[in-house]
Amino acid sequence: MQLRIWHKIIIGISIPSFIALLGSFITYGYIKDIKNRQGFVQIADDLTEQGLEVRRNEKNFFHYKNAEHHGHLRDAISVLADSIRSISPETIEEIGNDKFSLLNKTIQTYSTLLNDLYGNYQQEIEVTEKVRAEGRKLETLATNGKPAKELTPRFILNLRRLEKNYMLFRDKKSFFELENGLSQLRNLSLSCYECVSYIEAIDNLFAAYKKSYSTANDLQNTGNNIEEVTGKIASRERQRISSFLTLTQRLSLIIVALLCTLGPLFVYRTAAYIVTPIKRLVDITKKISNGDITLRAPLKEQDETFQLAESFNTMLDNLYQTQQTLEQSLKLLRDKQSQLVEAEKLAVAGSVASGVAHELNNPLNNLYLAAQVLSKEIGQGPVSDMAKETVRDIFSQVLRVKKIVNELRELSREKKPEFKKIYLLGAINNALKMIRFPEEISNIKYNVEAPEDVEVYADKHQLEQVFINLFTNAVDAMEERGGLLNIKIDTVGNYAQVKVSDTGKGILPEDIPKVFDPFFTTKDDGTGLGLAIVNCIIVSHKGKIAVDSEPNKGATFTITLPR
Amino acid sequence: MMKLKILVAEDEQIALKHLSYTLENEGHIVTGVRNGLDALKKVEKEDFDILIADIKMPGMDGLTLLTEVKTRSPDIEVIIVTGFGSIESAVDAMKKGAFDYLTKPFDLDDLTLKIKRIQKNRGAFNK
Questions:
Q1: What are phi and psi of B24, to 5 degrees?
Q2: How is chain A split among helix, strand and coil, in percent rounded to 5?
């Protein structure tokens, strides 16, 4: 997976490079070939040149017909033949075996014909001599004795003239004229022995000339062939070079065209391949920075960019987690903050209550002392019943204020509770001791049901306060008719349960939810703080309190405390 | 019943008035001061049997007064009147040599009882 990008880059670069390289190799091969061919062309040109030299010598030989020029011609043809022999077999192979074998054959033929022609020319000389000799003989004869009437010197001289013309010109006209003259002579031949010899010699001359003419023609034709073949070889080699050059040109064009199209294509594809994932990441980043933190980079290619995208996504996941955690923490902080504010409000209220209670203490003390003194003074003197009653009212109200101040103090008590293991029964009994059972009605009985003594984790003073308040309420509820205050201790799992029930006047259903509210009271002289204090203490002990009641049937308070 | 010389230090005028009245009605000789420094001056000048002092007073607070008085006249019985929820200071007072303490607002009967106890002790002592 690691090499994927490298792979693509290498491929992207390789393919155009490969094409270029291939093109270069092919072009190099062609050019090497062309260079070789140039050598061949040179060879062919040399041969052609040598061939032309042969033709030149040939012309001279035709003209001079002597040994010297025969020798030159033979040399020229040898030069050509040697040239051919000196060419390497590979080159002959390259240029064309058939051409060379043809050339060789032609040269052979030429040599043979040349020899023949030379022989012919030799013969011509011989025959010409014979003719002249016989001619002279005939001339002599004609001048000296006449074998025939018609054989006049003039005739013979004319014949000799024709003979000379023919030897000179060797054309049809001179031939026919001689032939004519000769035919006249032929008619006389029966009686003229010398004429016959002459005629024979002329006939031989005719034959010899014909022969050499024919041979010369053949030689010339063969010479033409040589020229032709060498010319063909040269032109063919040139042709080959030309077509190679054209091929090379075309190939170069193709390569360039391919490179021009594939090159940019591959570069683009390779670059795009690398850039695309990065662009994708950039896009995602932009979108995320606009707010959508749940977006993730798509995992498309299986290479380094995969790892990059994966890491990116992991980072985003972490970021999201962090964000979530932060939000949660923030929420928690806010909750705690509002709790703190509430607590502080309570604290402030508490301290206000505490402050109020504190401030009230002195005036209260003054009032109380004054009331006590007044009560004593009045008690002894002759004052109206109303005055005495009024004093009693003042007293009772001062006591009421005292109770409120005490309970306020209790409620805003800043003293920290000391939690210890406390026996419930002990606390209950202590509380019972502190309760004032009204003397008017002694019909209030109490009963404690405790199958076992249970220990709870609590502050002794506060626990006693709870029971004092509950028992006081129960007694107050049963004040009119009397009744039974029943206290039952139980264990429920890890908790201790205490049920405080009375048979008093009970609580109205609509009041039940409000009983624990501060300053809620159904008594004329109630402060409304007793149960609020109880609730506060129970809650701080991590316990629970519940109330059950029916009007006129009594009420039961169930307290649950941890053991 | 023995007559006692009682010094009352209390900055609240009404309270001082009623306390003094009640104690005088019971036959004691009562002197009233309204701050701690005055109380100390009085103790230095005269002999008293009992000092009733409020724990919070201008000039000198009750506990300091207690200590000072006890050094000058160790025989004086001091009753400290505490305000609000300061049981610790009451205990502290007892440690420093107070005879007893009262918590405001208190019953005059309670005070009377405590004075009677002092009288008993004095009486026993004197005998």
A1: -65, -40
A2: 75, 10, 20
Q: Which residues contact residue A557 at a Cβ distance below 8 angstroms, ignoring those fewer than 6 apart?
A: A470, A499, A500, A501, A545, A546, A547
Q: Give which of A465, A472, A510, A495 is closest to A558, Cα–Cα.
A: A495
Is residue B88 pLDDT above 80, yes or no?
no
What are the CA-CA distances from residue B111 to residues A373, B50, B115 (Å)?
13, 12, 6
Count the Cβ atoms, other than its own, within 10 Å of residue A244: 17
CA separation for the pair B83, B102 (Å, rounded): 9
pLDDT, tens only, A73-113: 999 999 999 999 998 888 888 888 888 899 999 999 999 99
What digits encode the pLDDT tens for the residues A164-212? Answer: 999 898 888 999 998 988 888 887 766 677 778 888 888 999 999 999 9
Is A238 an 8 Å CB contact of chain B? no
Nearest Cα residue to A407 out of A512, A298, A537: A537
**DSSP letters of A410-436?**
HHT--SPP--EEEEHHHHHHHHHHH--
Q: Of B21, B84, B106, which has the smallest distance from its Cβ to A357's Cβ?
A: B84
pTM of the full structure: 0.44
- Residue that has been written with the tokens 């030429």 in this structure: A110
Task: Specify the 3-state DSSP secondary structure of A146.
Answer: coil
Q: Which residues pair with B29 in a beta bridge?
A: B5
User: Distance between CA B15 and CA A310 in Å, rounded?
Assistant: 85
Q: If DSSP states are collapsed to H, E and C, what string results for A58-75?
A: HHHHHHHCCHHHHHHHHH
CA–CA dist B69, B91 (Å, integer): 18
- Tokens representing A119 are 């022989």
Binary contact (A358, B108; C-beta < 8 A): no
Residues of chain B that touch chain A, judged by Cβ-Cβ distance less than 8 Å: 12, 14-15, 18-19, 21-22, 83-85, 104-108
Of A364, A369, A398, the CB nearest to B18: A369
CB–CB contact A372 B19 (8 Å): no
Q: Residue A164 in contact with residue A177, Cβ under 8 Å?
A: no
- Give the contacts of A446 (CB within 8 A, at least 6 positions apart): A432, A471, A484, A485, A486, A487
Cβ pair A394, A370 in contact under 8 A: no
Strand partners, A448: A487
Tell me how far apart the 2 most distant CA atoms of chain A are, in Å: 241
Q: Residue A125 has which token pair?
A: 């000389």
Contact B59, B38 (CB under 8 A): yes
**Per the structure block, which two tokens stand in for A134?**
């016989």
Question: Encoding tokens for residue A367?
Answer: 């009032």
What is the structure's pLDDT at A530? 86
Task: Report the amino acid identity of residue A550.
Answer: E
Task: Measure the CA–CA gap between B57 and B45, rounded to whole angstroms.
Answer: 20
A373 touches B at CB < 8 Å: yes
Residues of B in contact with A415 (CB under 8 A): 85
Cis peptide before A16 (omega within 30 of 0): no
Amino acid identity of A482?
G
CB atoms within 10 A of CB B21: 16
For the question of an ipTM over 0.90, the answer is no
The count of residues in chain A is 563
